[in-house]
Amino acid sequence: MAPMGIRLSPLGVVVFCLLGLGVIYHLYTGMVSNRISAFKQGKTVDLRELLALSIEAAVQGGREVKRIREDNTLDEKSKGKTKEGASEKLTLGDLNSHKKMFHLIKNTFPYLQVNSEEHDSTGEPETAVWNHVIPTEIGQKVGSREVPAESVTVWIDPLDATQEYTENLRQYVTTMVCVAVNGDPVIGVIHKPFTEYTAWAMVGAGANVRARETYSEKAPQIIVSRSHAGKVKGFIGAAFGNDTVIIPAGGAGYKVLALLDPPDDKYDKADVYIHITYIKKWDICAGNAILKALGGHMTTLKGEDIDYRGHEANNGGLLASINMDHKALVEKLPSLDKERG
């Protein structure tokens, strides 16, 4: 007797083939997914290169900011209201600077997480890639340091102090880049487009800026936001006395520079920087890194470190100082919840 065979109907053949293809597909996609994951985990990036790239990105963005302001082609719009009720401006300077800065970093290191204040994909795509040239100043001060790419978050502010930019208060305007590793700010760049001054620092490696020789702890001059002040005057009065000198200024980047040894006499000089309302991390990360590299501090008003991963917002207020007893400053501050009423 001839052996019996299994005969499939046409429908059975189709089902069998589909099942086979499904198994192959899942095996293949699983293999690809694992390889992509391994690729990402195996990638490292040199922080010295990221410092040099951050400076170049801030400078290129700054050129756009300056050009558009000088050409008076701001194309000013409103992004809505801030949490304090102030109008939040958007200009062509913000958008063009974002395109230059964001894409230069992403085109060079596409596997890095880059968070920007602006988001715009209109017009011709930016294809520029950094040339990997390390400036002599950085090469002499900063050594190579490799870190896992997955641990890095880059924060960019294409135009800090947009309100002041629209008012032509150019001294407050900056472009900023910050690199955080596992949430800790380690590289900070603050560039002033209209003077072409760039401050940079890398924690544990070097900086081109420094602290001033003296600061006043007993009667500190305190710099605050001119457009998002909230109840900051009452808050400062409760902590340091009603006669405390308060310096209103635009831009978080500018306020951090006011705590340092200025490049010329045109800069405000402050001992402490305080902000008691909501603030975005791209506004403060670069300044935090610079202060940290110089031995200073930037924390919430409760003295807590700020984590530069994940969510973009910092709701805990801000206290920044250098060469002062930061813990003692924190202890002087009243309850933020009470001030917010």
TrEMBL record:
The keyword Metal-binding applies. It is a single-pass membrane protein. It holds the Pfam family Inositol_P. Its EC number is 3.1.3.25. Keywords: Hydrolase, Magnesium, Membrane, Metal-binding, Transmembrane, Transmembrane helix. GO terms for biological process: phosphatidylinositol phosphate biosynthetic process. It is found in: Membrane. The chain crosses the membrane at residues 6-28. Pathway: Polyol metabolism; myo-inositol biosynthesis; myo-inositol from D-glucose 6-phosphate: step 2/2. GO terms for cellular component: Golgi apparatus; membrane. Its cofactor is Mg(2+). It comes from the Eukaryota. Mg(2+) binds at residues 117, 157, 159-160, 283. This is inositol-phosphate phosphatase. It comes from Megalops atlanticus. The lineage of its organism: Eukaryota, Metazoa, Chordata, Craniata, Vertebrata.
